[in-house]
Task: structure prediction
Amino acid sequence: MRKINYRILIPIILLSIISIITIYSALTYTSKSLGNLCLKQAIWYGVGWIIVGIMYHYKNEFLYQKTWILYWIGNICLLLLLFFGTPINNSRCWFTLPGIGTIQPSEFMKIFLMLALGAMIYDFRSKYKNPSCKEEFIFIIKTLGVVFIPSILTFLQPDTGAVLIYLIIYLSMMFVSGLRLRWFLSATIVVSCIVGGIFYLYFFKEKTFISLFGTSLYYRFDRIFNWHQGSGLQLENALAAIGSAGLTGHGFNQTPIYFPESSTDFIFAVFASNFGFIGVCILIGIILYLDIQILKLSKMRKEDRDRFIVAGIIGMLLFQQVQNIGMTIGLFPITGITLPFVSYGGSSLLSYMILVGILLNISIKKRKTYWHN
Result:
């Protein structure tokens, strides 16, 4: 027990308590057909801690050895979703398992993608101490292919939020891979030109855009670019709940107004309305403390696989935290991205707990390396 990194463990425990309390408060406006989400979240957390214990016993090497098997299993599941997935809100992102509920493969694909990219970067850095531009270019093409497959399958479901997270994971891990800066500058120019061309078609050549990309993508763009105009019931009511909370909030289980997805996408609004500005400061403080502790784990040898995976984890968490809170208070478009460790969700929570297990094992390895040195 002395080896456990309590600086990571304690914030997770605090976030789990906040999650269960806030989801209980959100039950007032949650459909009864969904059942007791508070109890379900507590059960998912219990299962998650069991997974952490198992991973703590077997260490990360067990996952590293199965990296490519897990990666291809994840892609097969994403493919099967297109044919056998349960339609929910016009998306096929979930399998329905009798007696268990729904499971979302894209949540676990985030982990599999980190493992695959970590293995590729580790092998590349081990093989080439001073790679040429050609060798780096070939490596970039290979890694893009690994990201491209799950991204396309997930985009077709459609789940744009998960695709964004895949890309954030990729960029975070490649940034610490030791590649020349010119590749990132070149990628920025190319992506800017492509995105600029797509935006031009969307704003000025509507018919051409629809003929090339279809109406589905057009309406997704329309939702993103018009988020600041109409806002909608969801955002307007969430802002009203947060804005009226004051310094200390309305009190536990006293969410003053209804807004959809209160236990998932807009869980931050429920917490802020209940506990006010002081509660929000405490929550954000816990989140920042956790992020800092994870960042500290990245101070490893440049060739260490764990270092690349930590980069992917922190990149994903930071993006989701900023995006979720930002969209809740009207700073960013509503994308359906949840708040890690707080929002309700079985698949997402289990995937985060797997990452906790990975981080705790990395922490042990780092301490052992420090002691040996």
About this structure: Residues 6-372 form one domain.
